[in-house]
Amino acid sequence: MTNNFLLMSQNTALVQQLTHLCKKVQWQFTQTTTPTGLVVELEKQTATGIWWDLADTTLDTTIATMTLIREQVHGPITIFVPKLTERLQRKLYKALVDDIIVLPFNNQFFLPLIKQRLWLYRHLKPKTTTPTQKVSPHQTVTIGNWQINSQNYTVTKNGSLVDLTPKEFQLLTYLVDHHDQVLSREQLVNGVWGYDLLNTSRIVDIHISHLRDKLEDDPHQPQHLLTVRGFGYKLIK
User: Fold this and answer.
1) Residue 9 burial by CB count (10 A; 0-12/13-18/19+): exposed, middle or buried?
2) How far is 159 from 172, CA to CA, in rounded Å?
3) Strand 49-53 and strand 4-8: pairing?
4) Which pTM was predicted?
5) Which of 84, 107, 116 is nearest to 23 (CA)?
6) Rounded to the nearest 5°, which phi and psi values hold at 115?
7) 3-state secondary structure string across the chain
8) Residues in contact with 211: Cβ distance below 8 Å, sequence separation at least 6, in sequence order
9) Cα–Cα dist 53/80, whole Å
10) What is the C-alpha to C-alpha distance for residues 201 and 113, in angstroms, rounded to an integer?
11) 14, 44, 51, 236: least surrounded by Cβ within 10 Å?
12) pLDDT at 127
């Protein structure tokens, strides 16, 4: 089994150190440079674990993101910090991270720690969760040439199945449930992701763009997923 981690960092030295370590044990990681980028990347792949550089974001955004992704990640979340205080340690562990490592770190300490965490997670059964999105009262909704089935979580366009990520489907069904209403980015983040991501509501823009690319005939002139400038988005049938 290949271990694939997600790294959120802009620290070149840290990236090089982790690259060297991963080559030794045949692990892989994908680097992102923003919290939003990591959340989006987590939609695309299953991560063995998360490596997060606190120096590249605020503590509040870190806590918010950890709260958002914790149930998605059945693996260790490791936070790298330039300096550790009791207050920082308390807040991060409250957000259910696994380990806090002060930079620079010792290679001989890091690998055994992560290996032990991986062993632990592989001997724990992941919790079974039910979808968190609100299910429309009607099992199938038609929007133009789209068919959205909220019972089997499928979307078709002109009869062909459209491949959506779980979050794209949740965002689409949330918009369907509130069709013809103007929804702010903050409302969409809270309604779909279930947590206020502070300054990272751009994640909504990214997911709307992906939905338009997959569903609209012309993503640059959408007929259903509309931008209401200065306010947010709305879906019209």
Assistant:
1) buried
2) 18
3) parallel
4) 0.66
5) 107
6) -60, -40
7) CCCEEEEECCCHHHHHHHHHHHHHHCCEEEEECCHHHHHHHHHHCCCCEEEEEHHHCCHHHHHHHHHHHHHHCCCCEEEEECCCCHHHHHHHHHCCCCEEEECCCCHHHHHHHHHHHHHHHHCCCCCCCCCCCCCCCCCEEEECCEEEECCCCEEEECCEEECCCHHHHHHHHHHHHCCCCCECHHHHHHHHHCCCCHHHCHHHHHHHHHHHHHHCCCCCCCCCEEEECCCEEEECC
8) 164, 168, 171, 172, 225
9) 5
10) 34
11) 44
12) 52
Do 155 and 215 contact (CB within 8 A), yes or no?
A: yes
CA angle 149, 163, 222 (to 5 degrees): 80
Q: Are 188 and 233 in contact (CB under 8 A)?
A: yes
Q: Dig out the tokens for 203 from the structure.
A: 């994640």
Tokens 């929804």, located at residue: 183
